[in-house]
Write a structure and sequence with these properties.
Glutaredoxin, alpha/beta, 7 strands, 7-stranded mixed β-sheet, single chain, 8 helices
Length: about 240
C-alpha cells in the first residue's frame, strides 16, 4: 500500500452531496463517516495485502476423498480443474439434517450469485457431508446453477477443517483457500475465528464478510439486528 496517502478527513472534505437540502448536522456526521469509510477501505486493502503475502502454508498430505457432481470419486487435486487456487466452503448439511443450515444457505446463495465470475479466476467448490445428490437437489430448489458440490467421503475432511465436533456431533461451517504447486497442495488461508474470539453481543465472525446479506443490512438504519437470522423459507408478504 502507498505510504504517502492524503489524510482520510482531507479526502472526505471533497464530498459533494446529491441532495442539497440536508441539515448541517447530517452533513457533518456524513463527512465524518465518509472519512471512516475511506480508512476502512485502506485497512481492507492492507488486510488483503497481508493475506496475499502469507508465507508458504502447510502441505496437505492426507488423501481426502470426495464424490463429485457426476458421482465419481475424486481427491483435492481434481477439484482445482485448470486453476492453481481452490476456494472451498464447507456447509452444515450433514446426513442427519432434514434441511441445511439457513446461515450456510445464505452464504452459498451469495457465492452462487458470483459463481461464474469467481470461476474465471479460481476454482470454487462446496463440500458437505450429505450425499452429493441431496446437495444438488437442494441447489436446484434454490436455483443455484453456478456452483460445484462435493460429498466428503466419511468424516475425515470435516473433522480436519473443524466442520464437525466429534464429541457433540455439532456441525460448523468452514472456509479455506488451497494452492497447488506441482503435485503438492498447500493451505494458503482458512477462517479461524471461533466462539472465544467473538466480541460481546455479537456472533463470532471473521473478516472480510463474504455474505452480501450482512453487507447490505449494515448499510441500513436498523443494521443486522440482534436476534434476526435468515431462514430457508419465509411467509408470504
Amino acid at each position: 500500500m502507498h505510504s504517502n496517502l492524503a489524510p482520510a478527513a482531507e479526502l472526505a472534505a471533497h464530498r459533494a452531496p446529491r441532495f442539497a437540502n440536508e441539515s448541517a448536522e447530517y452533513a457533518r456526521a456524513r463527512e465524518a463517516l465518509l472519512a471512516e469509510e475511506i480508512e476502512t477501505r485502506r485497512h481492507l486493502g492492507r488486510l488483503a495485502a497481508q493475506l496475499r503475502e502469507l508465507p508458504q502454508g502447510p502441505e496437505i498430505e492426507e488423501d481426502y476423498r470426495f464424490i463429485d457432481p457426476n458421482g465419481a470419486e475424486v481427491g483435492l487435486a481434481e477439484m482445482f480443474g485448470g486453476h492453481d487456487t481452490l476456494v472451498i466452503y464447507h456447509w452444515m448439511f450433514g446426513p442427519d439434517r432434514e434441511r441445511p443450515c439457513p446461515m450456510c444457505t445464505a452464504t452459498i446463495g451469495s457465492l452462487n450469485g458470483n459463481g461464474r465470475d469467481i470461476a474465471q479466476r479460481v476454482a470454487l467448490a462446496i463440500t458437505g457431508r450429505s450425499k452429493v445428490e441431496r446437495q444438488i437437489a437442494f441447489a436446484q430448489e434454490r436455483s443455484w446453477h453456478n456452483l460445484r458440490f462435493f460429498q466428503s467421503k466419511g468424516d475425515y475432511w470435516a473433522l480436519k477443517i473443524g466442520g464437525l465436533d466429534p464429541d457433540k456431533g455439532w456441525e460448523y461451517p468452514a472456509l479455506l483457500v488451497l494452492q497447488r504447486e506441482g503435485d503438492k497442495i498447500r493451505l494458503h488461508w482458512m477462517g479461524e475465528t471461533n466462539l472465544q474470539m467473538a466480541d460481546p453481543g455479537e456472533d463470532s465472525r471473521g473478516a472480510v464478510e463474504i455474505q452480501a446479506l450482512w453487507n447490505v443490512l449494515d448499510l441500513t438504519p436498523e443494521g443486522r439486528g440482534t436476534d434476526w437470522y435468515p431462514k430457508l423459507d419465509y411467509a408470504p408478504d
